[in-house]
Amino acid sequence: MENIGQYIEALIFASEQGIRTEEIIYCLQASFEHDYTADEVTRQIDAISQKYQDDAFAIEVVKINNGYQFLTKKRYHAAISLLQLQRSKKKLSQAALETLAIIAYKQPVTKTDVEQIRGVNCDYSIQKLLEKELIAITGKSESVGKPILYGTSGLFMDYFGINNITELPQLKEITDNSSAIGEQSE
């Protein structure tokens, strides 16, 4: 017979949320056509938990909300928090991505120019992009009212893994005509 403990360990690892004993039993019974009891599964989980108590592992099995889950041990939480903070800075909404794309391709550009292209107010998106340091104020326009000009920042290059703005795809490269209806005329 297979090592059931390894299957249970794999199920706990693969589960995005805590996995309940009943779910583990269901998966095992469906895989091996054998009746497993809650006691058998619990003993295996206890053995897995014991294994991960060793200082050689940075993770442990934790029982949360009647389910089991692999979590990082408490002593690593400060480092994990820094990683989460860094990654949260990288998430952009669709509106922010659209605004950033317009600024990247049209820079230097004013907020009004971006709003005319998008057709909606861009105050929030521009503010968030400034906070995330993906765009920067590059100066003031010579037009009436001397509006602020925006352009991409050095962090923008890091975020998208490019060395300079000329490495952005050309608009004709990303335009897809495959969904066009009717004949194309040149």
The gross shape turns out to be: elongated
Number of strands: 5
Given the structure, what is the number of helices? 9
Please, what is the CATH homologous superfamily of the largest domain? Winged helix-like DNA-binding domain superfamily/Winged helix DNA-binding domain
Overview of this protein structure:
The longest helix is centred in the N-terminal third of the chain and has 15 residues, at 38-52. It is elongated, with a radius of gyration of 26 Å. The protein is 50% helix and 13% strand. The protein has helices at residues 4-14, 21-32, 38-52, 77-90, 94-106, 111-118, 123-131, 154-160, 171-174; strands spanning 59-64, 67-72, 109-110, 135-140, 148-152. It is built from nine helices and five strands, in the order H-H-H-E-E-H-H-E-H-H-E-E-H-H. A hairpin with a 7-residue loop joins strand 4 (135-140) and strand 5. By secondary structure, it is α+β, with helices and mostly antiparallel strands. It folds into two domains: 4-76, Winged helix-like DNA-binding domain superfamily/Winged helix DNA-binding domain (Arc Repressor Mutant, subunit A, Orthogonal Bundle), CATH 1.10.10.10; 92-174, Arc Repressor Mutant, subunit A, CATH 1.10.10.10. The strands form two sheets. Strands 3-5-4 form a three-stranded antiparallel β-sheet. A two-stranded antiparallel ribbon has the order 1-2. It holds the Pfam family SMC_ScpB. Keywords: Cell cycle, Cell division, Chromosome partition, Cytoplasm. InterPro entries: ScpB_csome_segregation (IPR005234), WH-like_DNA-bd_sf (IPR036388), WH_DNA-bd_sf (IPR036390). This is SMC-Scp complex subunit ScpB.
